[in-house]
Amino acid sequence: MKKIFLISVIFFTALANQSQPVFEKIFDYSMVNGVFDMILTSDSSLLIYGSVGNPGSPVSYVLLIKTDLAGEIIWQKNFLWEQTCSWGKQIIESSTGFYYFTGSYFYKPLLMKINKDGDTIWSKKWSADPDFPRNISTIKQMSINKFIMSCEISWEIYNQPPSSYMMVIDTLGYQFCTGAGVGGSVHQTRIKDDNYYVLGMNWNNNKIVICKNLNCSITDFFNFDANDNPYDFEFDDQQNLYFTGSSYQIAITKINSAGTILWTNNLIPGETVSPFSIIIENNKIITTGGISLSMGASQFFLSVCDTTGVIDTVYVDQTYYAQIGQKIIKVGNDLYVTGILRVEEPPSWHPVIFLRKYSFDSLTTSISIINSLDRKTISVFPNPANDYVIFESFGFSALGNGTQNKIQITNAFGQPVAQWLFMDDKTTWDCRQLPPGIYFYQFQTTEKTYTGKFLIIK
Prior knowledge:
With about 450 residues, the protein is mostly beta strands. Helix content is about 5%, strand content about 55%.
């Protein structure tokens, strides 16, 4: 079993900075591929579902990390099937206390049942052929002995657009029935009022699809024009549905029970926002995800708006080069968020898994304190550099109109080696005359100073 390293960072929050997490835990593997899901278990623990791999190898492992509510690891398990690429989609806890998780292994669908200690009870695999699903996306429990799953056939294998199916199984993995799905890829499912709702993407007509199913038969079907993939959805107490997606224009969409769009909201105007997870608590819609920047950089965000679409706040964390929130859940009066972050800039990506705890009250009642959105940043690349360094800014709307933003470069001894006025969004600086070593930059604006470092090699 691979060894996991845990780095714990504790944040002591003060009234003036209530948006900071109560704690952050970093789970560091040699290579993290993704985080897919997180649930609160019946024994008051968190179960994080992800994937890790080996550098230079096509083999990936399904990863489960079970922690207490303080983020301390109870156990962690790796699962690998037949020495082929393995990854997952969703994990649930059944009413009898077992965990079921779904996924695929080398384009073959997979379902696995384990106990609370992570020991395998059984695994169910199906062959990959044109008449059977390639991947099991989601699973939900219908009754004490019935589970319904949404499955996909991939166009990558069969040279056709993806299609989806539903399957109902018992606690041993045997089928009750199968039926047609959304006609494309499945992203999330919910069970509400004894109905099974599926959110997906129909790639035949570039539509976001929401359908209501029962016992593998479709009863209602809604289509919406799509710019990109949908990610997650949730219901409020009035049977309205909210779904999230990745788009320059739209991040959250609200529809009523008849499928009529009531409003849309991008959360952060002018930015490409990807809200991967959504919850609704006390008439507040809370999402987490990432804000895309250039050069692979991204910013983590938590957003809060009400059910009319009015934004209370968007909190953005710029601590790391790239970070994305993948799943958010509420436990008591706390919010737990898991996702992926990359500490270093390209090419040394080294992704790791994070777990953060936030105070729910601080995000929903201290709006004037936590609205700390700052989309302005500067990217420096390549790093390490040899002949030149490119400085590229984002979000500085005043650039190019005469505003005298300034860059200053110093060496490791604090001695200035270069400075110039930054009058455009991108500047290429010739560094061939400088010896190898570590250099520091200061990007000075009228609002604040941005600092960083880069390495010159020869």
